[in-house]
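#onboarding

Welcome to the new folks! Below is a worked example of what a typical request in this channel looks like: someone posts a single protein sequence, and someone else replies with the predicted structure as tokens. Don't worry about understanding the tokens yet, we'll cover that in week two.

Example request:
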Amino acid sequence: MKENDIINLHYETHDEEGRLLSRHGQVEYTTTMKYIRACAKAADAKRILEVGAGTGRYCVPLAKEGFDVTAIELVEHNLDVLRQKLTGSEKLTALQGNALDLSRFADGSFDLVLLLGPMYHLFTFEDKQKALAEAVRVTKKGGDILVAYCMNEPTVIQYVFQRGNLREVLENHMLTADWHCVSEPKEVFELVRTEDIAALDATVDVTREKLVATDGATNYIKEYIDAMDDFTFEKWVEYHLSVCERQDLIGASHHTLDILRKTDNA
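Example response:
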């Protein structure tokens, strides 16, 4: 099965929309939207590009808030769900496309670029670098690029040890000697460490503004999070937001958000 077919099948059968709507998923969503809005306000952003827009969980609300949004999505099923959310009053253009090729857009076309899904499914450094370089290219000088990643350690802790898959993983050579997960397209998700993210950033003309843990410890105790009453959940989110920029906790988060600024000499 081809790589794109594997990704298509995953999103046709996996309820990604439901994941972000769940109580534990709301932590990642709320955190990500907080930083998107902060970046947009700081840059007085008008035009936003979301690359890998999925079902529109981020780009549709942003369009409803008045931003001029262009959404690029590889999976046709996700685009169908996204378009069903639109009333026609939003300034949102939804197109099928690939994060590796944004050639339809000129350099510096957007004030803010979101790359919130593609890095989950790119399995070589070259492809990840190409996607990042394209996102940077279409961002205006001084604009921000927000890039989401899936992190390595939660999978080692939960999938390998907690769920009892250690022998299977070792027999299939899915771990390096230093416990870095080895992913292929059939595993759907690519997992990284903070040093992998830094190595990618070093290939483009950007400065890092922040590296944020978008869900932190939430998914380790998601059953407890989902069962919280409203008051307790509100306090959990308050706690999470107070520590999500602590660099000593970043690598243990399931998802991170790398916030980059395109340099003026790019």
